[in-house]
Amino acid sequence: MNKLLALAALGLLAATPALAMEPKAPAATEAAATMEAKEATLKDGTKVSIEGENVFVVGADGAKTPAPDGEHELADGTKVKTMGGKIAK
Fold first, then answer.
1. With the CA atoms of 6, 8, 14 and 17 taken in that order, what torsion angle do they form, in degrees rounded to the nearest 10?
2. Full residue range of the structural domain in which residue 82 is found
């Protein structure tokens, strides 16, 4: 019985280094996932793009410009306040 436990323990120890050496996702990939752009429409029909804390107005040609300062209401009724093209808290 002790030999069986010893063999099981050795098997566990042998597998542990392989688990410890598993590659992890790079930090840049994690940051990119959190910076995913969300497209939305304001109540007045203006298209906007929210990218992390940045808010852009999207022109008919697709060009993005920082959102003007103020409170903006999305089509769903959500309000977003911006200062300097960023979401203000």
1. -110
2. 2-87
